[in-house]
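Case study.
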Amino acid sequence: PLMESYRFAELVDVIATVKQNIPTDRIVHAFGLGHPMLFALAVALGCDFFDSASYALFAKAGRYMTVEGTKKIDELDYISCTCPVCVEHGIRLKKLYGEDKTRALALHNLYVCFSEIEAVKQSIRDGRLWEHVALRCRSHPEMMRALTALTKHSDWIATLDAVTKNSAIYYTGFETALRPEVVNAKKRLERIEGGMRIPLKPYGEVPPGLLEFYPFGQTLHPENTSEYTFKETALEKLRMMADYQFGKGAGALIPDNAIVKKSRNTGRMRWVYVNKEMFLTIRASDHFLLPKEGYMKLLHENFKYPRLRVVLEDDGEVLACVKEGKSVFAKFVKEVDPELKAGDECLIVDHLDNLIRGGTLHMSPKEIKDFTKGMAVRVR
Amino acid sequence: PLMESYRFAELVDVIATVKQNIPTDRIVHAFGLGHPMLFALAVALGCDFFDSASYALFAKAGRYMTVEGTKKIDELDYISCTCPVCVEHGIRLKKLYGEDKTRALALHNLYVCFSEIEAVKQSIRDGRLWEHVALRCRSHPEMMRALTALTKHSDWIATLDAVTKNSAIYYTGFETALRPEVVNAKKRLERIEGGMRIPLKPYGEVPPGLLEFYPFGQTLHPENTSEYTFKETALEKLRMMADYQFGKGAGALIPDNAIVKKSRNTGRMRWVYVNKEMFLTIRASDHFLLPKEGYMKLLHENFKYPRLRVVLEDDGEVLACVKEGKSVFAKFVKEVDPELKAGDECLIVDHLDNLIRGGTLHMSPKEIKDFTKGMAVRVR
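After joint prediction, the assembly is written out as follows.
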């Protein structure tokens, strides 16, 4: 009834409530959710499967599905769909009778459903699911209400969201300022105290030293101008990035004698040496700092347990594997710093807090706890 | 170069400048505008034809068109398009070689282009072109800039826009408050002085008596609540509607002894009688007032030339035709009240300002002046 009566905002709240109250490793099957307009929204909320007889029921009632809503076939003047049914019949589709018409419409509706599933999958691969949802939600005011409802769950989604992505963040409207990436970025900005700030939509005020860091440097907002002449030294920028990524105090651990080397091609900071040893590298795509042994040890000494840590179970075999560089699987993790996010660099320690290696978190802390399968940390 | 370098906002300004400086009856052919992402925007600005070799040039470069932008075929993991090429090959499309690949991509690109042309046509039929543009513009930040640029031309578009439409107005984002229908409605609201107002997005403050009138009653905005108990009498509402539709003073011309009859089915005002004669009817779809002879005479007496008037050329044959009830063609119109809009009820007068009949404007005053063909006024 929520779907038939277009109460999509309530549907959002229902799915979100369910998802927040079951372990994250449970597969969610959305029974009866059969309109392609809703797939992206449901997937963004964590639905994994759909099934529905809507494609056939709609067909019987002369209803023609599109990703922007349902149309009555008899009211259409043009057919813009390119599915085999629509290419074969064109607008004469509405002149078909009885069984033929129902069958043709059902087939078209199925094509649209499967097409949207593929589009959602591609948008996930591209890291653009949020943009896809924002687009679909603009097809009806009740979908817009659903989008508003979705943004109210951003804090929860943000706890599961990755802290770095390969995709840019496109401004699409009010919802951009409320998306999980922005929620997470604003929270990390609190790690930086004082200093100069410049306005950057939709984040508010951002320290200039972070303008190239993800997500700030990857955000395309029509009201942002890219003009800013850096006054900060490379080391000042680096320390700010470290504070932002790891937490307050991480920047101060980079010693004054650190030497920052830049890429010949791009002129961007790439490598940092301390006493002729590689101290950290800077990833080109998102400017994340990838600490080497020297920096890892300093982070380990100065950030108290369990900060920055993934703690392994007390299991000699697991320990040996991780030391060799094999990935850490979720079921062998005893504890994780809850402030870490998927995509974060972390310190892998044993149950006595001995530093084993560095790694990259591939799940959120909550997922690591819930999942008994899958890779939790890729070892560096 | 504007299109290749994604300078869509400038493209909007260029087309708008051209359109504002040529007569409205000229057909505009957009040479080289070949990306389906742009069609709706260009049509909204008044382009009539497109041609471009982009579909083939893009294909040669391995570029796969979608209405949301261009993708590199080699970077896709899923194919969501249902065109015959994509259904035949699926994701194996990217494994084709040389000529085969180019040919397949070119054909796909053409399907997408023609599909979008049909979708634009349907959206025009549905009165939903603006919503269609708003959707397409959310696929890229430069398209969002273009949408902002489009809204800056709303005052101009509003002069050509119809004052009533069959379609509802859907809230899609910031641009809804700036669309031509809203511009026109806000201007007409100035015709009503004082009285109580209630907030109604995106119009600002609206007199409750107009809540069912177009576009107020046809606007779906998630922040508007529909709860309001009318305290106004039917006659008070009617006079307010008259002031809004025809201009200040039109309401006062409805006499105190007017009898308002309501529909048995809907309970809405439908007919108004004065001294047992039909004085006006109220159209159910948009609540526009359709004046009968008595009211027309009063409007004619009390609104000074050329207000509310379409003035015919001094041509006996034309006059005779119009008296019989035949439509008024643009070339026989000498003058039009510039405050009238397409969709408005008007007074058809001869060159000596004798009232001939009532009618409905089917073009904007500017179009009536520019066009030598086509129906300007449908006679009631």
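Observations recorded in class. Chain A has a mean pLDDT of 95. The longest helix of chain A spans residues 98-125. We will return to this complex in the next lecture.
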